[in-house]
Amino acid sequence: MPVDTRGLARFVQIDDETCLIDLTVQGLTPGKHGVHIHEYGDISRGWMSTGDHFNPTNEDHGDHVGDLGNVEVGVNGWGDLVVESSRIRVFDIIGRSMVITEDEDLCSKTSSSQGGPGVLSGIIARSAGAFENMKKVCACSGKTLWEEARVHQDKKVSD
Predict the structure, then answer these.
(1) In terms of Cα–Cα distance, which of 90, 100, 36 is closest to 63?
(2) Domain 6-130: which topology?
């Protein structure tokens, strides 16, 4: 796996009932990778110290708060996932972690379908209130920092 594996996730509480999750990853192998919120924000040992999937209601796997589905990564190593959740409240996940797994999460009730070991993890932290930080590069392009980075990366590859 490339050294420059990284990602950025934004959690925006749109209203009391809706949280928007906007994830971009770079440097992962092509294919689907599971996306999960984990109990703890301890990444001292990578994903191994993040605890179990965040599951405050003790639901069966495949249908609990911490399962966000899969991010599809293309042959260029980039992947995006945008999902809305009626069960996540940003306030409840600050200080926890997000983990991207090596393989696809089949979202079934067996533990062997959860996507395997983590390949990318990070702490969920507060950076701004809703719509206070648009991360725009410039008014002319209207692109976010990660969208602009992808354009430049793709340009390097094609040159």
Answers:
(1) 36
(2) Immunoglobulin-like (2.60.40)
- List beta partners, residue 156: none
Nearest Cα neighbor of 10 from 94, 106, 118 is 94
pLDDT of 99 higher than 60: yes
Query: In the numeric block, which tokens belong to residue 43?
Result: 């990444």
Partner residues linked to 122 by β-bridges:
98
Which pTM was predicted? 0.76
Strand bridging mode 97-101 / 118-123: antiparallel
Whole-number Å distance between alpha carbons of 131 and 64: 27
Q: For the chain, which residues make up each domain, given as ranges? A: 6-130
CA gap 37, 59 in Å, rounded: 14
